[in-house]
Amino acid sequence: MKTIIAGLICILPFTTLMASVDVKKVSKKKQTTQGLYMTAEEAYKDKTVNPSDSLFVDIRTRAEVQFVGAPSLIDFNIPYMLHDKESWNEKKKKFSMEPNSNFSIAIDEAIKKKGLNKNSKIILICRSGNRSAGAVNLLDQLGYKNVVTVTDGFEGGKAKTGTNKGHRVVNGWKNAGLPWSYNLNESKMYIEN
User: Fold this and answer.
1) Distance (Å, rounded) from C-alpha 129 to C-alpha 175?
2) Which of 59, 90, 55 is nearest to 73 (CA)?
3) Helices 130-141 & 103-113 angle (0-180, nearest 10)
4) Domains and their CATH numbers in the chain
5) Pairing between β-strand 76-77 and β-strand 94-99 as defined by DSSP bridges
6) Between residues 155 and 94, which one has the greater pLDDT?
7) What does the pLDDT read at residue 17?
8) Any bridge partners for residue 97, and if so which?
9) Any residues with CB less than 8 A from the CB of 4 and at least 6 apart, and which?
10) Which residues of 46-58 are buried (b: 16+ CB within 10 A; e: fewer)?
11) What average pLDDT does the chain have?
12) Which are the contacts of 142, defined by CB distance < 8 A and separation ≥ 6?
């Protein structure tokens, strides 16, 4: 009996790192070629248990990180998309975005800074999980083999009903009460050359 309990105690810390996201419930926009998903809470647990075993990247724009805040545990902010200051998206009523042509180079530099490689775990978080899925697919094409998307993102999903309808109050890093801050660390922020 003591042997069984000791065995369970040894296994228990590893079970908290296994993703519980039901792949069948991941929307098409958030599905990736690698099929590796985590919730914000799982990403938090993963980074607190094994902080040096993975690269945790906030891929939102610099403006989002500056004005909305960022997870306290990120290793770097490397935007996957950048605002096109000269183009307006009439359908969405906002500035258009374009891919960051330096994204893959910056990810490669970040991996090397942490002493990791293309087989190491990379965890990507964006606002709500859509952009991070696209970034996973790009990195998959570039030979990265263990790239996880945080399906609920930093701000989470929008409420579909009630007084908060249309507001990002459903799941996500912030809504889970996980540590975040407006105080950014310059060494972790994306600076264009």
Assistant:
1) 14
2) 55
3) 80
4) 19-188 (3.40.250.10)
5) unpaired
6) 155
7) 47
8) 83
9) none
10) bbeeeeeebbbbb
11) 90
12) 104
